[in-house]
Design goal:
The chain is α/β, with parallel strands linked by helices. The chain has two domains: 110 residues, ATPase, nucleotide binding domain (Nucleotidyltransferase, domain 5), CATH 3.30.420; 143 residues, Nucleotidyltransferase, domain 5, CATH 3.30.420. It has a five-stranded mixed beta sheet, sandwiched between helices. α3 packs parallel to α5 and α3 runs antiparallel to α6. The relative contact order is 0.18.
Length: 281
């Protein structure tokens, strides 16, 4: 992907990051100055390759560029091995999240990423090196999938969930972290006549507590992910519980994709043995 059109438009060459998550596929295009010139997000669906193509075309259109202008690309996420037609260079989600978040906040940070199927807590030192990470791969509780199931049980949309949480005057605490048992508790609360806003706030509280129990947090916390982007009350609640401000990137859903694009720019596209161990963890 080294061919370039002549004369090159402003911002060329471009560096591409593809974050193929289990729920959403995100694409980011940056230039050599690390500016995001194009981006796109779509539901991943059942065909990662087709979705990646569509996202790439959308992002290129936004950037006013063509595929020939992409000098290097890196893929990350659940479906990163499904886009060899675009790039065979891959990085783990952990590495891309750390890279993208550190680009926005170049200091020692703890990154909390709430994804569609898993949550991650990644610690990065002041030099941008990853120190440790934790994931909750074995259970969807506290993830986007959990929130979607709870919204379904309450018969409300996901955007309404955030609105309801802010309206709550009390909170219905859920006793179980299990998605199935939590759904039962939600139904029991509905039957008992508890206000929907109070139930929703309890659901958010359950999610935040689940994440906070994954690992000890550093002084500066950054929250990322599509769930955070669309449910900002989670950030507010996290800040209240840890009693200090929590940062978010300008576009929390694209942090992994931007991190992948930065790796493409850095020229460090190949997986390392350390990252391979992370993926199997």
């Amino acid at each position: 992907m080294n061919a370039r059109l002549e004369p090159p438009p402003h911002g060329i060459p471009l560096y591409l990051g593809l974050d193929l998550g289990s729920s959403r596929t995100k694409v980011a295009l940056i230039d050599a100055e690390r500016r995001v010139l194009g981006q796109a997000v779509r539901k991943s669906g059942v065909d990662f390759a087709q979705t990646a193509r569509a996202c790439l075309d959308d992002a290129l259109q936004m950037a006013g560029a063509a595929r020939e202008h992409v000098a290097a690309a890196v893929a990350t996420g659940y479906g990163r091995n499904n886009v060899a037609f675009i790039t065979e260079a891959t990085r783990t989600e952990i590495g891309c999240l750390a890279r993208g978040a550190y680009e926005a906040f170049p200091r020692a940070i703890t990154v909390i990423d709430i994804g569609g199927q898993d949550n991650k807590v990644v610690k990065v030192d002041a030099a941008g090196r990853r120190q440790s990470f934790k994931m909750n791969r074995k259970c969807a509780a506290g993830t986007g999938a959990f929130l979607e199931e709870m919204a379904h049980r309450l018969d409300v949309s996901l955007p309404q969930m955030d609105e309801y949480a802010r309206q709550a005057r009390d909170m219905v605490k859920l006793g179980s972290y299990c998605t199935v048992f939590s759904a039962t508790e939600v139904l029991e609360s509905i039957r008992a006549g508890r206000p929907v806003p109070d139930i929703v706030k309890g659901i958010y509280y359950s999610m935040v507590k689940r994440v906070l129990e994954m690992d000890a947090l550093g002084e500066q916390v950054v929250m990322t992910g599509g769930v955070v982007a669309h449910n900002p009350y989670l950030v507010q609640m996290t800040s209240e519980l840890i009693e200090r401000p929590v940062l978010t990137c300008a576009q929390p859903q694209f942090v992994g994709a931007i991190g992948a694009a930065l790796h493409a720019l850095d020229g460090t596209a190949a997986d390392t043995s350390t990252e391979s161990r992370e993926e199997s963890a």
